[in-house]
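User: Hey, my collaborator sent me this sequence without any context and asked if I could get a structure. I don't really work with proteins. Can you help?
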Amino acid sequence: MALYWSAAFSTSLYMTQKLTGGSLNPAIAFGINCTMAFSKEDFAFRYIYIYELCPLAGAALALIFYQYVYAKTQVNRDSLVEAQAQS
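Assistant: No problem. I've predicted the 3D structure and written it out in structure-token form, which is a compact way to encode the shape of the chain:
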């Protein structure tokens, strides 16, 4: 199990290295971009929308999953438990 987590973490670091410098914490990556704005590099805020839109998109996907997948399985499970209790 630890091998899967370490492989996922290593892959995530490798994929985000050019964008955030390998930082997986959005607050730290945002702070790095803010400090880069004071340097000579002009691309500091090119990807700023990622820090605002991606957490909102993830929350929306989690809400959709909860509403249409998880909640329906719990309703079916509760009705089965009630039917078994009555019989």
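In plain terms: Residues 1-46 form one domain. You can pass these tokens on to your collaborator as they are.
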